[in-house]
Specification:
Layout (H helix, E strand, L loop, with lengths): L1 H25 L7 E2 L2 E8 L3 E7 L5 E7 L6 E7 L6 E5 L2 H7 L2 E3 L6 E2 L5 E10 L7 E6 L4 E6 L9 E3 L9 E3 L5 E11 L4 E11 L6 E4 L3 E3 L4 E3 L5 E8 L5 E7 L6 H4 L2 E6 L6 E2 L17 E2 L5 E8 L2 E8 L6 E6 L5 E3 L5 E6 L5 E6 L4 E6 L5 H4 L24 E6 L3 E7 L10 E5 L4 E4 L2 E4 L5 E3 L2 E5 H8 L3 E4 L4 E6 L2 E6 L4 E4 L2 E3 L6 E3 L2 E5 L2 H4 L4 E5 L4 E5 L1
Amino acid sequence: MNQMKNIFRKIGFSCLVFFLLCSQTFAYLQPEEDYNYFDSTPLYSFTDKIEYYTLSKNSEILVIQVISKQTSLKKLYVANANGTGLTDVFSDGDWAYKQYGVFLEMKSLTPVISGNGEVLVQGVIPTQQVDKRSDYFFIYYTKIKKGFIVSLKVLYPGCTSARFPKDPSGSHYSVDFNGRKIFAIVEMGTQNDQCNIYDSAIVSMNIDGSNQTVVYGPADYSPIHCRFTWKSYPKSPRNAIVSFSGEKLFFFGSIYENDNANDKDGEIFVINADGSNIRQLTFSKKLDPKPEQAGPFVINYYGSRLYYQILNNSRYNLMSIGIDGSLPESYFSFNHPIVFSISTDGKRIFFSHPEKKDSLVYFDVVTQRFITLLDFTKPAELTNYGLLEKLNHEDWIWTNTSDFAGNMFLCCIDQEWIIRGTINSSYLRPRVMNVVFQTGYSVVTVNHQPISLPTTPYIKNNRIMIPASTFCQAFGYPYKWHTKEQVLEIRQFGNIIQIHPLKKSLVINNKIIKPTLSAESKNNQIFIPGYWARDYFGLALHWDSKLQTLTITR
């Protein structure tokens, strides 16, 4: 009997140990407790305000639009997404006149780029010394570094002018992946003493501006009665976006019988690029708010799903729907609409979380979990996000800012910096980390797990010296040794920390610091004073003088 009791005791103890270990391992895998490590790299900075930026679908070319704080003139740049090759390709006013003989401005129009990054398209409008009956496209080839302008020429019979929509929000044009065709929302109409009316249509054209044709628009226009005629709904298409294949067009369209503002809010439709087979994707009740009220929509690479928001019971739900007519999926909701960006495959949705002090997160569509990248619910002194502390929801913009799988994304900081964030899912870590170094022992304990050290910590000037490589690996900080410069570079979120053992100094975000005790090289390892973890990385320390152990906690 006693033998049986001992056996059950051992089994019970083993189960308890297994339960505790599992609790420690999986406690941080709950939806609101997921933290995913990522590294951030500043790519470009401007003294002027960044208005807009977007990334080619192949994640190679970046487009940036800025506005001068002094003159309000705008400039358009293209650059490599790796932080090189920044080139000024278009400027408002005199620059445009010298290049093309026309005073042109970008106004609130936003640039788009082909998926392969070869062709940049920017809408511009004439301001003076030119016939203003038509707006223009600025077309720029990134490989040959050559640009030209194209006039909007397509008109309904009786119309006298073609222009981009006056509404500053939304997407007025898009280009297919290969950069061969442009699809644009164009307003056509007449403005004179007798008649002042415009209505919109979807227009397609070759990238050189040739073969401008109406894909979808009114059936007729009467300058005598000053009226457009539509044979069927939807009317007045807006925000046309072409799928990456170039085969489908998505847009908002109005379903209304009168001029009531609520009736004019649009549902989402899909149509073939040749104008055939139009289908309605979203269906709201007569008096319900329409998807257009919650902001623009985004499509995935395949053109198979579309992501949008709707107002439902005083909350804004983020949804997606398949173009095959499948039922929409609902992901999450907030008290107000959010600005979001999706990975190209549509499996990660990036945004600033309004209920977590605008913490930067992404929602994993597959696992239905929120992953926190920047946790702004913590005090700033505990996070040390550096430049990223200035990120807020206003810096997010509704555009393509992520690579295909969402392992890399771009964000704008303080309207002056373009930052690249690189996510490494293999670095999924517990929220709490305890790392224990002991003087004279070649073992470090990481969350109670002993790991061998290449060399042992030691005491210098009454301070414990710890191997920098082990410290960085334990807390997930990327590091690199530059042999030529004899510098160890460590990245901690938005901070760049460069350690110079020979100069007995370190540089944090370009600020030189002379510490009381410097790093040093020993046994082919760089050792740093343990107190640096508190003073320069914002971590908590506990020194046990009896055991000669330093516990570093996050």
